[in-house]
Every structure is written in structure tokens, then in C-alpha cells.
Amino acid sequence: MQPRKEQLPPGIRGLLVRLGRIDRRWIYLAVAVAIGVPMLAELRLPEVPEKKARATFEAIESIPEGSIVLLSFDYDPASEAELEPMANAMVHHCASRGHRIVFMALWPLGKQMADKTIDSVLKYYHPDKVEGVDYVQLGFKTGNEGVIKLLANSIDGAYTTDAAGKAISEIPLLANVRSVGDFKLVASISAGYPGAQQWVQYADSAMPEAFKLIGGTTGVQSSQLLPYFPTQMEGMLIAVKGAAEYETLVTEKYPVTESPERLGIGRERMGPQLVAHLLIIALIVLGNISMLAARGLKGGAR
Amino acid sequence: MSAPATKPNDRLLWVSLVVLGLVGLSVGKFFRPEPIAEAYVSVTTEVRTLVEEAPTNDGSTPAASAAAAAAAAPATSLASGEAAGQPADNTKTQPAQPKRIWVDADDPAIERQLKEGTLKRVPDVAQAVWDVRTPIDNRATARAQMAALEKEAEKLSAPTDPTGLTKEQFDQREAARMAALKVVEEKRIVSSTRDSLGIWVAALLTLGILSFLVRDNPFYKVVESILIGVSAAYWMLVAFWSTLVPDLFAKLAPDLVRATMLPGLAPSKDPTQDFLLALIPLGLAIMLLWRLMPKGGWIAVWPLAVVIGTFAGMRLTATIEADFMAQIAAAIKPAAAFTAVPPDEAAIAAAQAAGTVASPGRAFDFGGTLAAILGLIGVITVLIYFFFSLEHKGVVGKTARVGVWFLMITFGAAFGLTVMGRMTLLIGRFEFLFGDWLNVAK
Fold this sequence. Notes:
The structure holds two protein chains of two kinds.
Chain A: H1 11-20, H2 24-40, H3 51-62, E1 68-74, H4 80-97, E2 100-105, H5 110-125, E3 135-140, H6 145-153, H7 155-158, E4 185-190, H8 196-204, E5 212-217, H9 219-225, E6 235-238, H10 239-253, H11 265-293
Parallel strand pairs in A: 1-2, 1-4, 2-3, 4-5, 5-6
Helix pairs in contact in A: 1-11, 2-11, 3-10, 4-5, 4-10, 6-8, 10-11
Chain B: H1 8-31, E1 39-53, H2 62-72, H3 80-85, E2 100-104, H4 108-116, E3 119-121, E4 128-135, H5 139-157, H6 167-186, E5 187-192, H7 193-210, H8 218-252, H9 254-260, H10 271-289, H11 301-331, E6 338-341, H12 345-354, E7 361-364, H13 366-385, H14 394-437
Antiparallel strand pairs in B: 1-2, 1-3, 1-4, 1-5, 6-7
Helix pairs in contact in B: 5-6, 7-8, 7-14, 8-9, 8-10, 10-11, 13-14
């Protein structure tokens, strides 16, 4: 026997109730269109940098030119879309400011992420930088927060060679670096555990005055890290929005002429992001109205 | 039994997807200059020579002598820690092999080192012609680079204008032109089948995962299984090469590891101590694997206790310092916030007259004050909400209710940030599909 078709109220109320019971796949399709159309239309929005992005920018600007900074790539391809834009901008910023960069990774694929940024930004915009003198890639080290604790004691406790197998004692850049306290700035671009939170807990807590700590995080992780700003983390970039603001600051002061899109990925992604957010807000409002309209009906809210 | 019929709603959805796909492909067909999913690489031909570090006067290689010098000069080297509290370097007993590397002999830095004698050619090894392939980010960049190379080659192909030149000047310019032309011709931008195939595989795998949004299907199952299998294998390899080999096997049998797995393994400063220390994790690992034996499973509990105890101790101190004490300190701040402002002209003039420097003034910061007050109210009300020793009635109940509002706002903000993160991941995949694969977007 066929189930009896439910009688919906006539008019707008019925339409609203029906809207609340729509197949969720139509919503997926709407999200796809909301992202795809602005992307194809190349929708770009102006970015006004706010406090956290400015603090991150200032942290890198405020240390003396030629300082040694540690960039920890604590993410993998699953979070690349959110974190690669800020990683690219940060490496360009450090290199343009004349800082020397030590790359490392607490995530196994972080080393590949750092390599990608070295190739597409450091070697591309700063071909004069020499490996071993201006930058060094230490690569991935297993041990999660244990690696940070080792680095807080001594660099060679955690790394005996760089990623290419060269002994730490033979790398000119690290000649006077004994522990993490010898860096002027540490930045963790992090997608979770281990990441920025562990850098706060095991490095910043051990030597709070020794270096500035800044972090770039995914949207999901940022609510965990917000309490650390600005006392324990001097700068913070939250997801692609933070990256877009930071890109604006970096490219305003250190513009590039060739392939500027490499330092504008975050800003490119904010157009589709805006439309998708507007759609989701509209869906939340419609969902609530539909719930109210269905009150009193069988299967509806009470 | 027949398969369930497609619902009308499903049919409409499939039709919409197909129509959207066809429209997208048609738009791409008319407007894109290249076929879909064609990747380019930049190829540079280089002649490489095998060189090795020349031995120093005492017969050791520069690497070995650098390590020895590092141990002897604690003030200038990382090895100073070793000299202070650890046994002396034993590199003399285990001399390192000279490092061999293929280099571009035309590189001025290498040429200089060959002349100085810090590097020397390995005899009886012929030079090799190397094709260095560098993937190009996107096709627009590839096209621009191809056009630039063609333009450069065309410009260089025109012979030197001899007007007003002596024969010597003409010959010099001609030689420089030919050298530049050779460099340009050695740089090529070519279509890469391997990279193009990679894009197709990645695109199909992405579509396979996204197909779950329509309905669970065999395509999704296959892709999901591939993901799980590849991830499991990858993590096994990472654990083997980044933990077991360098931290266990290299300590237990360094010569064997150097001969078979890690030729670049540096000699240990104290192999005996390393060996003895490595026996502890080896023993714990064997005890942990004892769980797989038919009897004596309890043995595995002991290494687990060591792991849990170690991590609990390590995290306890870190959490108390970073998340408890430091957060309390950060929460205690004046309710009224002020910001520094530059001194006004009158103050500067007065300071100049007095021969001093004007101090910056301060202005009331409404936003900062509001944030400080809200922070204070939030901390107190949320703490009261989690205080269960008193019944949530009267003033306590009302305060706890305010705490609930703060918590709800926090959860809402966290949800918003999560949405932003997930949308960015989807945008990243769409950029790949539209850009790298379909070539309809940048």
C-alpha cells in the first residue's frame, strides 16, 4: 500500500515547509555553483589587514635585518589550500627583509610542503639566496613535541644533518645556533597536532623572552590558539582570510613584478569564499524560517 | 530482484549535473587555447661532472677535518656541547669517505673550487648530459615563458651588425651572441606526458571522492580504498625510515646501516653509549609486540605504562605553564585600555624649549576597553557555569546563563571558522579541477 501523501499547508507556508525538506544534494550543488561561478568570473575583493595580520607582519619587520628565523611547516597536502598562501607570503617577507631562514617540519609531508615553497617563492623571487648560507632545509623529524623539547636544548640533539644529509656542523648558517633560543623568530604554520600549540607549550614557555613566536593556522584549529595571542604568540594568521590580509601587507611593501599570482593565492580564494559564506548564511536563515513554518505539522518542530 | 528505480528527484539532480558539466566543457572548448590537462615542464640541458672533496694535508677529507675542528673549537661550533660534557670525537678512528657529487662544471663557483683544489674531478668517469626538468605552475606561465624564450632566440639569431666595429670587437660580440643563443636554446618548455597523466589521475580521484555527495557508489569505494591503502603504506615507510632506521638500527649496527641503507650516516661520537641506550627502546618494542603472542600478553602493559607516564609528565608541565599560569596572567589586565598617541605640537615645542624629548600621549581605547570588560565577564560567568558545587539557581543560575551565552557565541565562532576552512579546501580542489585539469580558469 502506498503511504498517504502528507498534506502541506497552502501558500508561502507550504513552500517554506517544502524548502526545509529539500534533498541535501541540491544544497551541495548550490555550494558548488557558489564557489565555481566566482572562481571562473575571477571575483576579487580588496583586503583590509586587521590586528592579527598586522602583528604578524610587524613581528617579522621588527627583528634586525639578517636575523635567523625558524619556519616550521607543520601541515600536509590536506591543509595546503588554507596554509600554502601564508607560507608563500611569509617566506617572501623574510627573504625580502634579509632574514636567513631555517626550514623544518614536524609533519612527515611538511618537508615536501616547504620544498614546494622554496622552489616557487624563495628560488623564484630570490635567486641570489644561497643554500646553507641564506637558508637551510632541515626536513622532517619524527617525535612531535619531543623534537621541540630537543630543539630547546640543542639543535644537534634533534638534527644531526640537514635534509640533504649535510652535517649540521658544516652548515655556515647554523654555526652560531645552538638551540631554539638563538633564533630571533619562530613561525609555525600549522594544521593541528603537532603544531603551533606545541611550539607555545614547549618552546615559548621554556624561553619566553628569547624569540618571537608567530603562527599560521587553519580555521578549525584557530579557536584553540586564539587565547595565546598576543601574549604568547605575537602574531597569528587565521586561515585563508589571515593569509589574504598578510599577502596584502607583504606585497604592498615588497612588491614583485613577475608572476605576482604566487603571492596572491589567498586573495584569489576570498572571492568564492565570500559567495559561499553568503549562501550558507542564507541557508541557515531559510532553514530556521522553514523550521518555524513547520511548527505544529506532523514531523515538524514543536 | 530488480535494482531500485531511480527517484524522480535523483533524475533531476543527475540531469542538472550533466548539463552543468556540458556547459562548462563547451565554454572551455571555445575559449581555452590548449587541450585539457596538458602540463608543461621547463627542461634545461646541463653537462655534469663527478667531483669529490679533495683530501687535506693530514689525509682526512674536509668533512672529517671540519668535524674534528668543530670538536676542538668549542666557541665557534655546535660541537662545543660535545667538548664540554661528552667523549672526544672519534672520527679519526672512522674516517669518512670523500663525498662525491655531480656538479655543473661551468658554474663559476665550482670552477673556482676546482682551481683552488678544494674539489677535484673523479678520474675515469665521463661527463654526463643532464636534463633538469622543472614543472611549471600553470599553463599561462608556461605560455609566457615559451614566448619569451622564442623572442630571445629570434633576437639572438640576428647576426651582429659590423658597422663601426673593429674585427676584434665584431668577433667578441659574435662569440657572446653565440654563447647566449646556446644558453637560450638549451632551455626548453615541453609538454610533459608524465605530469599530464598525473593531473588526470588526481582529477579522477578527486571526482571519485566528491561523487559520494550524490550517493555512495563503487567509484567512491575504489578511491576510498586507494586512499586508505596508500596512507597506510606511506605511514609504514615514514615510521621505518624516520624512526626505526636512524634512531634504532643506526645505533645498534651503524656499519651495517651505513653499508646498506644510509651511506651518509655520520660517525657516532660514542657508539658504545648509543648501542647501550638503543637496547632500551628495542626491549620495550619487543615487549609491546608480545601482545601478538598466544601467552604473556600482560608483558605489553609495561612499555605502554612507560609511554603513558612519559607523555603525562611531559604534557603536565607544559600545560600548567602555557595553558594555566600564562593564561591567568594574560587575563589579569586593566579594564580601561589606552593607546599611545604621538605628542601634539604644543608638547613637542615645550619639550624642545626644555631641551628634552616629548613623551607620547595616551588616548582612551573604547574597543580595547570593551574587549577587556567582555573578557572579564566571559571568564567569570563561564567559570561559574562549570562550578557544580552550587545549584544553578538565583544569582548563580542567572550568571551561569550568561556563561552559556558566551559559550554559544564561542561555538558559533568556531563553527564559522570551520566552515571557512572547509570551503577553502573545496576551493582548492575546484581550482585544481577548473585550472589544471579543465583549463577553464587560471
